[in-house]
Amino acid sequence: MQRGVTKQTAGLIGVFLLLCGLHLWSYAHMPAARKEADWPNCVLRNWHEYGYWHLDGQLVANPGGLDAGEKPFVYPGHRPWLLLPPYWLKELPGTAGGNGLLYDFVMVLATFAGTTRLMGTGARGVLLASIVCLSPGFILNIVTIDTISFPAVVGLAVLPFAAGRLADGGGKPAGRMLTLAVLMLFMMMNWSTLFSLFVAGVYLCARRPAQWKNLAVYIGAAAVVGLGVFAVSILSRHESGATSGDFWNAYLWGPGGYDGNGMSLGKALVRISGVNVIAWLPLAVGGMVLWLHNGPGERWRLAPLPLAAAIFAVFVMRNYNAHHPWGAASVIGLGFLLSLELLIAPRSDSKRAWSAIGIAAATAFCLVYCASWLALDEFNKRDYNPLYDLIARNTPRHSLIVVTDSLTPDGRLAPEAFSSMVDRKFMSAAGWETHRDEIARSGKEVFFLTHGTPPPSSRLLAQSQSPPRWTDRIMIPLFDFYREKISRRAPGDRKVFFPEYRLYQL
User: Fold this and answer.
1) Spans of all domains in the chain
2) For residue 262, how many C-alpha atoms fall within 13 Å in the half-sphere facing its CB?
3) Do 251 and 258 form a contact (C-beta atoms < 8 A)?
4) Partners of 74 in beta bridges
5) pTM (2 d.p.)
6) How far apart are CA 332 and CA 180, in angstroms?
7) Mean of pLDDT over the chain
8) What is the spatial distance between Cα 111 and Cα 122, in angstroms, rounded to a whole number?
9) pLDDT of residue 198 exceeding 90
10) Strand, helix or coil for residue 400
11) Are β-strands 425-428 and 500-505 bridged in parallel, bridged antiparallel, or unpaired?
């Protein structure tokens, strides 16, 4: 007679289903612009529309899909197969997969399973796995797909799983081969996986110092694959015209910075540390409560090493990560999680007086924090979100949108730069006048976007509005502090949109 589901297994399933419910709520409240904008989503839609093999499996980033099959713009420097998981789980199922909700659930499952494999299925593992899946550093990097941040957030699932197996000795030969295969597949995603692998290697050396030679075989084999991908990516960048000076300023420690507006150590330190405090504050609270509840682990003195390795890895690419600090959050989160595994004992010491009420309070704090952050994140793009919805809901993908006046109050955002943000082909009014006859012969639908005077003989299709709300008195001071003290972007680098736009058609 087979045994039924144990209480522990039932509890794990219940916690995971609760996590899925919370992610369903957050996904439903996440603006479409956050889930569908920017050039990697253009790549996914081009693969779906033109065929992955027809486009030679390349990162074809043509906005609106226009000329993707004839004149593809291939984004250089990254491996295209890194976007296959979100393509299979998000783009191909479409509405059948909840327009990305299936992808979200799979990533939650993988991260929850990987963390509990590392931490165990007791209170330590379940609480920390749940907190990771509800932290801003995880949610934002799941929803916003990027060629650097996506492999790093996948590392939050893959590397705790692999590190947990290797720290336990790897098990049977078949289990060790499975771990090695998972590591090597992860390393093939992109060259940036080398940083996450370095953090995991430091953890394993701290966790099993006497077995470092055996562990080096797995880490070394994975590193060889990662270095090969890095070499191919650098060659791709070089062929596209990038120079060593460009790489030094955009990615490393050059004074020019990623965007040419300059970068310094102080500015990078404030931006990266500020964002990661926001991203992983719930994990810090949960880790502190569990440390008081369970007591210190066997190797707690070495606990700072994985986090220190993550910080070092992030600052190797100082300029890039300072310009995209949320993209670096997954590497910091991985280091933090591995440090907590060393710091906190697996089980509670019965002699300790710390009550389980503390664990319940940490859980409640995480839930409230997650909901509050989602509200702040929506406010951050409140002006842009209605504009995105206006365009996405009222224009087909293969259309041309003419901007009859500036897109932003400072006029710094060119129409061409806006194309990848909304996956439509944009053109200035002057450009349209120049190529008007050619565009008419092509048969493309033409729309006009304006916040001011409409074009002559046109009819209004729809308009967007972003009215003020009562919460502005709270949100505005918070974001003024974030932008002035933490983000510290160059003037004009943060786009501010008009509160109202109108969409016309002749």
Assistant:
1) 76-379, 385-505
2) 6
3) yes
4) 60
5) 0.92
6) 23
7) 89
8) 16
9) yes
10) strand
11) unpaired
